[in-house]
Amino acid sequence: MGDVESPAYVPGHGLLKGRTAVITAAAGAGIGGATARRFLEEGARVLISDAHARRLKEYEGELAGEFEGVDSLPCDVTDERQVRALFDTAVRVHGRLDIVVNNAGLGGTSALADMTDEQWSKVLDVTLNGTFRCVRAALRAFRESGSGGVVVNNASVVGWRAQAGQAHYAAAKAGVMALTRSAAIEAAEYGVRVNAVSPSLAMHPHLVKVTTPELLAELTAREAFGRYAEPWEVANVIVFLASGYSSYLTGEVVSVSSQHP
To answer: Rg (Cα) of the chain, in Å, rounded?
Structure first.
């Protein structure tokens, strides 16, 4: 199958008008940054966060030059105090919280036999424990408000399939999937939906810096379209999960890839 060109960018349709969202790891060119932009195009107000304060502030400025309703607050999802401050700020600044997108994650490559405890723990603490901290904070906020809400977690196809050198990341992302399903059952009691997206390869400049050309080519070749996803294509699925169009969908992991097992 020959390569398929990326489709044209889809304009916003006001699907999230009047809603407020928190988005983690949203300081630029990846899925989090694309999600922030798409949410603003769909009429939402957003509080973006990231552990990289300088890049976060720069991206806030870029978005603020085009949209109203964007604020930022640095947040390291491995620090419970910072997570609590992020969610408290969202409610204080915007008066409400409707959507939480947990995008923060950390990868790495190491053969399992050579992997250190530190390498394992660092990936798990950001990718799985960080998602847990933010889901917990979101559910507490939604339970207190009594007005429902939506959580969208970022998983990965690696949580389903094997990939050499990725045992820690695969375990973390499989944990995010299980966390999503369990949280959805508990959150339904107070009208909250919890779902996840599971992308494979969404290309952005940082990924190119930390991934070998050989691996990028291999992952691209596995996809049915013969190309990587644009970050905004994953963001579009997140918009769907955050919108009223998915009002009866909870506890699901939606593959944004042809590599679902």
So the answer is: 17
